[in-house]
Structures are given as structure tokens and as C-alpha cells.
């Protein structure tokens, strides 16, 4: 499929999806979100892809939902079209890991999109924020829920109520991002992480993703049971025998996703 607002490359089992609307700092319009949903679904069902990276430009991961496109919409418009729901659900449905590689602005819907990914690697120029309050609105695709779970109530309230930006080092201290690297190293670092994930058994990778995500949806007791059952279930795979066997034989495992 030919895309207009994103660029997709597949290399070494990794699909790199780059948001590409430089004229609007990668603001998320409906076209971009449809293309992103299609690209993520295609990568999820492509046997050659084992991990996905979502990135933007040096200046902006994404500066939010497209304000120009939204400005004249009415309540009835956004309610009936259920703005952004279908496109964002494709990302949440994806069973392969998605790493967000964030440089520059990740604001509003851009910050929310990064948080929908499985983890965030940030460049030292990254700026995160939920500035929708400045537009007389508020987060609409997960910011009030996900940011609060990641950085706690006080910082989340501060960000949403004042609209201030959080720089990369504060984001790392607060647990919003997993690592911060110099801007020039962002993609190499994300690629190295994705390639490492791609070497693992795809079954364990999917199980880990399900288990960690379940921790945000359920009680500790239910989450622990869910994890234990997945752990038990992995003993039915050839990859568990291969992984443990390889350790004991002091060699690298050859996983076959079985
Ligand atoms: N939408 C549309 N266009 C944008 C956006 C945006 N979010 N952000 C930047 N642009 C455009 C600018 O209009 C400008 O275009 P032009 O050159 O044609 O005027 C171009 O990108 C460059 O931007 P600036 O000149 O403003 O660049 P600066 O470096 O001076 O400033 C900023 C960069 C600080 C990022 C600034 O552009 C800014 O504040 N942008 C808006 C950030 C924002 O408010 N984001 C939140 C948007 S609302 C949202 O995301 C809601 C999500 C949930 C929706 C759920 C619905 C159900």
C-alpha cells in the first residue's frame, strides 16, 4: 500500500514506521491515523516482522492531533464518527511489540500515541506534554489514564492542568520513558532494542506483552494468576526446551516460535 503521511521500511525483522507530515510537525490527522492503523495491522500479520518501531522526525514525534482538522467539528461530528477510536484500536490490538522512538515534541495525541506503544526510548531533545487545556479541551485518547498510571497523579495533574512540557530527563526520572539517548543515537538504539527482541521466541514475546499489559487492567491477585498460567503454558513450547537446553549446553538458543 502506498502511504502519503507515513514511511514504512522493513529491515532485519523490524518494521520501522515513520510519521511523515513535516509541514505540521507530524500532527495526527485522520489520513495519518488511518495509514498508521493499516501499517501496524500489516506489520502485525507479516511473518517477516517480529518487532515494530514507531518514530517521527528530529523535531517532532507528533505535535498532537491536527488542530486545523478538528477546529470546526461539532460534538455531534466527533461523537458520531467516534474520532480516533478505530485507528487507535489497531495499535492496541497489535500483538507484536511496538517501541516508540521519540525525538522532539510528543504533545497531546502525540504523547498519547507514544504511551500506546509498549515502551518509549527518548532522545535528549524529547518534550512530552498534554497541552490540550490551552485549546479549551483535554486529552482524548488515553492521556488522563495512561500518563497517570506511568508518572503518578501529582505529575499527571500538573501536566494536564498547566499544559507544561516535560523534558527527557524528567520523563526518564518519572518512569514515562525507559531510556534517554543523544538525538543522533535514537534510531540505532531503538533498532538495537528491536533486533534484540526479534531474536527471542515470538511466543514468549507475545506472552510478556500480554502479561505486562494485563497489570494495568486487573487486580494484583488476578494479574499474578494470569502471569503464572502463561509461565506454566510456556513449558508446552519447544522454545522453552530449546532456551533452557541451550543455557545448559552453553550455546546460543535457536528459537523456532513453536
Ligand atoms: N495541529 C495542526 N498543525 C500543527 C500542530 C497541530 N497539533 N502543531 C503544529 N502544527 C503546525 C503549525 O500550525 C505550523 O504550521 P504553519 O507553518 O502552516 O503555520 C507548523 O506545524 C509548525 O508549527 P509552529 O510554527 O507552531 O512551530 P514552533 O516550533 O513555533 O512550535 C509547538 C512548536 C510548540 C509544538 C507548537 O506548534 C504547538 O504548540 N503545537 C500545538 C501543540 C498542541 O496543542 N497539541 C495538542 C493538540 S490537541 C490533541 O492532541 C488532542 C488529542 C486527543 C483527541 C481525541 C479526540 C477524541
UniProtKB/TrEMBL annotation:
InterPro entries, A to Z: ClpP/crotonase-like_dom_sf, Enoyl-CoA_hyd/isom_CS, Enoyl-CoA_hydra/iso, Enoyl-CoA_hydra_C
Gene3D superfamilies named among the record's database cross-references: 2-enoyl-CoA Hydratase, Chain A, domain 1, Lyase 2-enoyl-coa Hydratase, Chain A, domain 2
Record bears the keyword Lyase: yes
Molecular function GO terms recorded: enoyl-CoA hydratase activity
Keyword Transmembrane helix appears in the UniProt entry: no
Keywords of the record: Lyase
EC number: 4.2.1.17
Short name of one Pfam family: ECH_1
CDD domains named in the record: crotonase-like (cd06558)
Full protein name: Enoyl-CoA hydratase
Upper taxonomic lineage: Bacteria, Pseudomonadati, Pseudomonadota, Alphaproteobacteria, Rhodobacterales
Amino acid at each position: 500500500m502506498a502511504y502519503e503521511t507515513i514511511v514504512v521500511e522493513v529491515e532485519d525483522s523490524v518494521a520501522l514506521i515513520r510519521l511523515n507530515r513535516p509541514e505540521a510537525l507530524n500532527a495526527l490527522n485522520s489520513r495519518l491515523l488511518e495509514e498508521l492503523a493499516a501499517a501496524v495491522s500489516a506489520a502485525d500479520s507479516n511473518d517477516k516482522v517480529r518487532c515494530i518501531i514507531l518514530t517521527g522526525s528530529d523535531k517532532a514525534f507528533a505535535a498532537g492531533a491536527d488542530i486545523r482538522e478538528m477546529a470546526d467539528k461539532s460534538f455531534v461530528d466527533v461523537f458520531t464518527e467516534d474520532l480516533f477510536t478505530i485507528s487507535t484500536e489497531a495499535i492496541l490490538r497489535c500483538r507484536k511489540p511496538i517501541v516508540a522512538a521519540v525525538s522532539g515534541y510528543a504533545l497531546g495525541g502525540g504523547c498519547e500515541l507514544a504511551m500506546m506503544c509498549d515502551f518509549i526510548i527518548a532522545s535528549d531533545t524529547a518534550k512530552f506534554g498534554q497541552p490540550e487545556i490551552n485549546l479549551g479541551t483535554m486529552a482524548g485518547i488515553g492521556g488522563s489514564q495512561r500518563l497517570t498510571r506511568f508518572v503518578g497523579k501529582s505529575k499527571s495533574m500538573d501536566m494536564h492542568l498547566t499544559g507544561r512540557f516535560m523534558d527527557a530527563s524528567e520523563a526518564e526520572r518519572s518512569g514515562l520513558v525507559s531510556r534517554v539517548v543523544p538525538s543522533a543515537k535514537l534510531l540505532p538504539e531503538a533498532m538495537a532494542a528491536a533486533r534484540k527482541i526479534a531474536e527471542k521466541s515470538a511466543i514468549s514475546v507475545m506472552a510478556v506483552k500480554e502479561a505486562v499489559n494485563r497489570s494495568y487492567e486487573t487486580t494484583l491477585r488476578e494479574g499474578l494468576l494470569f502471569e503464572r498460567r502463561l509461565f506454566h503454558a510456556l513449558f508446552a513450547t519447544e522454545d522453552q526446551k530449546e532456551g533452557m537446553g541451550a543455557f545448559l549446553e552453553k550455546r546460543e538458543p535457536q528459537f523456532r516460535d513453536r
